[in-house]
Amino acid sequence: MKRLPKYCSGKTARIKTLYLAGAALVLLAAFLGILLGSTPLKFSEIINAAGEGFSSTAAGRIFLYVRLPRTAASLVCGAALAVSGAVIQGVLANRLASPSIIGVNSGAGLAVTLCAALGIYGGWRLSLFSFLGAFGAVMLISLGSRRWGASRGTVILIGVALSSFFNAISNAVVTFIPDIGVMSNDFKVGEFSGVAYQRLIPSAILILITIVVLFTLTNELDVLSLGEEGARSLGMNTSAMRTLFLMLAASLAGCAVSIAGLLSFVGLIVPHAVRRLSGSGSSSLLGLCALYGGAFVCLCDTAARTLFSPYEIPVGIIMAFLGAPFFVFILIKGKGGHGDA
Cβ–Cβ contacts within 10 Å for residue 167, how many? Predict the structure, then answer.
């Protein structure tokens, strides 16, 4: 039996360590997310409530109807946005791309705003329209960058312009239908305080299915990441595979937006950090992005509701404070997107 080269076995051990650390971080983030808040819960209170019935005690009701859906939503949305960012970066060959930066989230946000105007606030229809908005945005970016031969920096500028355009339409809808204004303001920042099972479960199921499908296509994603000519030389139908991956990435981003609103920079920060540690192999990159993305958003949400207690700030503000300097750093280091960011 042949022995693996030392560098190969060393990399495998590092990936296993990263998976174990990521799983431990997810458990820690979930534990803190459930116990901490404006009304702290004790683990013993949750155990007692489980025995007596969650609806019979105040602690049980807080756990079942507030903390559990909120923590689950933050973990699911973080995983979805991080994996979506990794896929979009690979398909567009642009390390600066992420759902929030190139307008994918804003496209989904416009669809959600239109749904609210029509009286749709949850369920599979909200997830479907959110996906369609995200997919429309990402396809416009992809087709435009290919047709005009846009550089990586130009793709980002096109995405920013597209995002502004979608936001303008959303604001116009809110102007004509003021009743959805309160929902729209919370939605634009991004938060989990109002998450209910009706909105969470359909989107969470679709997110999990999409991530599983992506795990079966990691080899194809690696080939596509080689570039147009390299992928074609290996016999890949690059146009079809690119569309498929962008659909899957849009599904993840759209579902996350339908749950929590416009969370920014998750799809940029997490894939960059994970890629530095694990390399660019999609089989490990996507799984680690799911773990660390979920933990990152959950910890940010816990910080948002505990750092300034009894006041709570939307988690999107925390992410903007973390993500904006990170984006500027990557932009400068990559020389406007033309370097190896």
Answer: 17
CB atoms within 10 A of CB 20: 11
Site of tokens 């099972």: 197
> How far apart, in whole angstroms, are the C-alpha atoms of residue 25 and residue 272?
18
Q: Quick: pLDDT tens for 31-64.
A: 999 999 888 888 888 888 887 777 778 888 889 8
Question: What span, in angstroms and rounded, lies between the C-alpha atoms of 56 and 155?
Answer: 54
How many CB atoms are closer than 10 A to CB 47?
10
Q: What are the tens digits of pLDDT across the range 173-229?
A: 888 887 776 566 667 778 888 788 888 998 899 999 999 999 999 999 998 887 777
CA angle in degrees (0–180, nearest 5) for 24-27-272 = 60
- The position carrying tokens 């604001």 is 171
Among 270, 284, 334, smallest CA distance to 96 is for 334
The boundaries of the domain holding residue 139 are: 75-333
For 80-134, give the DSSP string: HHHHHHHHHHHHHT-TT--TTTTTHHHHHHHHHHHHHHTT--SSHHHHHHHHHHH
Here the CATH number for the domain that contains residue 218 is 1.10.3470.10
Residue 199 tokens, joined = 């909105």
Q: How many domains does the chain have?
A: 1
Instruction: Please report the pLDDT score of residue 122 as a whole number.
Output: 67
